[in-house]
Design brief:
This is Mobile element transfer. It holds the Pfam family SpdB. The chain is an alpha+beta fold. It has one domain. The protein contains one helix and four strands, in the order ββββα. It is globular.
Length: about 60
């Protein structure tokens, strides 16, 4: 069974949360996910700055 992601350094930018985690190979990944109801936006990035930029420019369209 796969181990769940352990997010650290989590911040919130509007309705989007950005957090960092280690993937199965020990690399650091950064995830941006919208928490608004009905919005399904989430994406993984290699750079923290890219994840934060996605969070700042995201517009919900549920």
């Amino acid at each position: 069974m796969a181990r769940p992601n352990r997010f650290y350094d989590v911040i919130r930018i509007g309705p989007v949360q950005v957090g960092s985690h280690y993937d199965g190979r020990g690399r650091t990944k950064h995830t941006a996910a919208c928490t608004a109801p009905g919005c399904g936006f989430s994406a993984d990035y290699r750079d923290r700055s890219a994840a934060e930029l996605a969070a700042r420019t995201h517009r919900c369209s549920p």
